[in-house]
Amino acid sequence: MTASHPAPRSRRERPAKPALSREGIVAAAVAVLRAEGLRKVTMRRLAQELDTGPASLYVYVRNTDELHAAVLDELLGTVGPAPAGGTWRERLEQVLGMYTEVLFDHPDLARAALTARPSGPHYLNLVETLLALLDEGGVPPAQAAWGVDLLLQHATATAAEHSGPDAAGQDEWDALRRALRGADAGTHPHIAALAGPLLSGAPAARLSWAFQALISGIERTAVPEERPRTTRPHEGDTP
């Protein structure tokens, strides 16, 4: 009687790998971001995670910049709708604060967000919410349209300024404080007079004030009318 041996298993019987999709690639990128930081969110790294070749990913995502923009859009899903209570200005500031917090929670992404151009559903929801609140406040449509860009730019720049390895450290801030407080009243009279206010205020309070200042400016500043282009008459044309 011969000993029985298990029959060799065909490689075709192994579980198939999940099909690639843009959603799956972005989900893997978000996981790598949270575990290892944005610098590790590369096509090569994601290919390892998804057990495929980097070339396969380019069918769904054109380049790393588009990937980072898609990651940002995915994280913007945590920015909820406008709160129910408060004035339109207060609710607008709260939504902007939620957006800023997303970037503060992911410092590497904050700097990338300065040039990233998300175009996914969560980004569109954010812009729609901001426009709706400006409309509720009676802000003219053209001013609201330009104003949304300004508000998001400031929120993004604020998060980028205080995030990442290149953000100013304590030594740099201390040097700036000493320079402002030690300014000569003869050569820099305005700095000498306002050294205290220049350095005052908690970061949250300054961010809130900046949002309110921008909102007030957007509310009151008309968008310039576009001037028609003037063309030079071609030779031989009747002027």
TrEMBL record:
It comes from Streptomyces actuosus. It holds the Pfam family TetR_C_1. Gene3D superfamilies: Tetracycline Repressor, domain 2 (1.10.357.10). Residues 1-20 are annotated as: Disordered. Residues 42-61 bind DNA. Residues 19-79 form the HTH tetR-type domain. This is TetR family transcriptional regulator. It comes from the Bacteria. Keywords: DNA-binding, Transcription, Transcription regulation. GO terms for biological process: negative regulation of DNA-templated transcription. One of its GO terms (molecular function) is transcription cis-regulatory region binding.
